[in-house]
């Protein structure tokens, strides 16, 4: 454990927790402006969270501990990912966990606990949301794994820090076919996994079209606040991962204050830009029919497979 | 006397004595005696296996015990691993069986006598040191398990059908192994393994390939590998649950053992295409097995299909090890084989737990159809916890057991980038990405499958009266599940306890000196960059949960939690019929993989008598058949049946004709003899 | 896609400038909500006139979201219920249950004359009463149907922005 890793392990989660609701605010604001609205302001998600934490907790009758624990686990898994993944610093606080399989599995674990909570309520919508979420996850997880593997084959390590450092030292990698294919595949699955258009509409009120929202219909107050915070954090984490796997420049590789400041700013700018692009892109898209989504995901799986094959052949 | 000798001797003696005791003791105590005896047998097996893995070995030759070939046993490190796994499963299943057999009317002599003997036969297979002994033990294992599978055939007709499938398939597998090994023995001095090892070095590639492919068919059928898997999801679920656990967690492993023993040890590694074949079979089985499980609504059948998946993953590891070994990368081969063997151990642990928990569900509700279960967490909290733990382990999520072995497997595959100019570079470069994709796809589908099994089966509201009245199982069954659960937890958090030994075993099997993996808390790989610490991951996760709980305490308002009705849109109370079932849960996935699984559905609309515009009833049926079975087995079965019908024309019932057949045959044989001499 | 982009550029901002804040003194509950009010809309028997107006209050021109109000899909997520129409017999119990489902602190807004005093439906055989006869009402918005400006003004009293 290096000093750099420990600093990163403290700065990153603080940054992610504080910044991800703002990222959601920025994305909503961008959408609102493109739709000709004024928008509620960048700080609105934080106001929502503050209010939710002040509200009453509700335990629907017939639910069990699974329902109550799920939001905690969801936030905790994302928090661990925020600590170990190289976002601000190339070193990780807990290096033996900064493995890409571990990170992907942790994010999947969060989604799984929420799906179980959706089933636990025993409502039709909860089950429906869980079923859809798991179908999407079953296709997203392999694509995530395979496309990041494509990047790790050349580095010879699945440690995310090592992958990021290798790209830092050899910038030409970024424009190789492997990187490009993997990047496209990753973008598609990140859109699916964070529940954005065209896979899921985050602002829908129509239960039959919901995926993520349907699972959390029963949550209220602080539990809901945790779920909302976690989904915002997951989005920042995914976008941060995308940014640093392909454009790692700016990340701190020494523990000097200047380097750290640059690292923080670089992450904010990169993730913010990606968020703005994602939000702007959404304005041009309509939601896909649910049974069209797997075709999109299968396409991205194929792309990631091509990326791995390319990484073996073009090495 | 060494640990191995005491252990193996003890296991043999305990098993046989238990069987004898089960014959004589009265029915009241029979389950307890047989269960305890099986536990002792299994414990002794673990002792022998651990002893063999830590360096001591044992060789016994008893020439007089069997006519013609005699019995010779050698327990080395590789065999020791499989003996230890079998012993461990037997301990948990033995404890569990004490209550389970009593409450399911299985305490008749038949089951109780055969159960310990089945364990003994399984313990002896990896210890056999000659073809004769190996085949005898293999066949005993198959026969005893067959007797146990059909134990409940009087109560349920489908058991008899499963038994028939199993009997035919297992014997076809046996014939394959027999032919393969006999061809091998024909080239050797005698039928002992050392002689075969010596002969393996000089075997022509054609003969070696023949031996490998034919034995592979036999071993793959035992491990439930495609396309010889059809018996497994039939026989494993229909057996009594503690037998299911033994079969699915332990009896599939001899298939892997045989493959490693014959392929790496006796035939000395072979050529690239053998292992590419193994890799392909493993990858296809893994994906197909988990796909079938994802569609399945029968809890035990789902677990059986997941066995095919996990054995597929093991074969991916074995195949990758072979590919690396034949292209000269012995270190990486060691990692791949260690991953496969670790997955064997992990799979044994969580599959035991899952089958025992499924048996507990069967005990508490009488149902195993997921569409009729649900809400078991209220009536069966311990079983729910056990199944949840097993499901976490099986879905390869941290902190579960399969997570570690799949990580190890992917590490091996990822580093399989062939060096320029290496033999078989192109083949490996095509095979490895596909293998990575197959493993990743399997991991994703396994998550969906086990969320379905646990979420639909144990959470939510009961979907039938039986599930609503579920009651917890008796203590012995809980202890059995507890033992398997502890094994799962230890293997998940501290895989480093067993990994060095597993690494040594794989090193020995491949003829590499160094252990492939090391590390006390963090798993570190030899020769390739890669480290993972499941313990630290779990601790980090726990710390994060504590942190979040604390933060919520500070931030959130101090209001009491209020219980409220479920949000039912303000309408009437929601009934269990409105819940998502296992079928509906899997429906989107089934649509996605429509072209692979080919579900069959038909809709019958009954119209009113007066008018065809009025509908009286609509009946909808859907079935997800095993497509391999439909395309491969059914034509063969139809051909055999047609052949049989044709043959029946010869049998008219006339004695004169039968005498005539005898006469003509005799003449034909005599002519044949006269011509060929 | 380029067409849409051009349209976005040409249209620019359609939201009308925000009128001066109608908030004189924030109620205790509104202060507790701190500028964020999630709203669950309940149609208790309306003729759908009010729904159309609520729809346009949340549309781009009036943009009620800019004041921190947002429509949500479940009463569990909500802080306020927006109830329209006279409460019909069949909707009285569901309305009570919806109110029960909202976690405290919670508010109820009765939108339209029907919700306030049953409007033209007063005395009809299928009507159970006005909204305040079924659940406690905090804010009432008059009109048949109320203009979107009135709805936005009522919601701003809750968000305090």
Automatic annotation (TrEMBL), chain A:
This is Formate hydrogenlyase. Keywords: Lyase, Membrane, Transmembrane, Transmembrane helix. Its main location: membrane. It is found in: Membrane. GO terms for molecular function: lyase activity. It comes from Prauserella muralis. InterPro entries: ComplexI_Subunit1, NADH_UbQ_OxRdtase_su1/FPO. It is a multi-pass membrane protein. One of its GO terms (cellular component) is plasma membrane.
Automatic annotation (TrEMBL), chain B:
Its main location: membrane. One of its GO terms (biological process) is ATP synthesis coupled electron transport. Transmembrane segments: none annotated. Residues 130-414 form the NADH:quinone oxidoreductase/Mrp antiporter transmembrane domain. It is a multi-pass membrane protein. It is found in: Cell membrane; Membrane. GO terms for molecular function: NADH dehydrogenase (ubiquinone) activity; oxidoreductase activity. One of its GO terms (cellular component) is plasma membrane. Keywords: Cell membrane, Membrane, Oxidoreductase, Transmembrane, Transmembrane helix. This is Hydrogenase 4 subunit B. It comes from Prauserella muralis.
From TrEMBL, chain C:
The keyword Glycoprotein does not apply. The keyword Oxidoreductase applies. It comes from the Bacteria. Its EC number is 1.-.-.-. Its cofactor is [4Fe-4S] cluster. It is an enzyme of class 1 (oxidoreductase). Residues 47-158 form the NADH:ubiquinone oxidoreductase-like 20kDa subunit domain. It holds the Pfam family Oxidored_q6. Gene3D superfamilies: 3.40.50.12280. Keywords: 4Fe-4S, Iron, Iron-sulfur, Metal-binding, Oxidoreductase. InterPro entries: Complex_I_20kDa-like, NADH_UbQ_OxRdtase-like_20kDa. One of its GO terms (molecular function) is oxidoreductase activity. SUPFAM superfamilies: HydA/Nqo6-like (SSF56770). Belongs to the complex I 20 kDa subunit family. PANTHER family: FORMATE HYDROGENLYASE SUBUNIT 7-RELATED (PTHR42989:SF1), HYDROGENASE-4 COMPONENT I (PTHR42989). This is NADH-quinone oxidoreductase subunit B family protein.
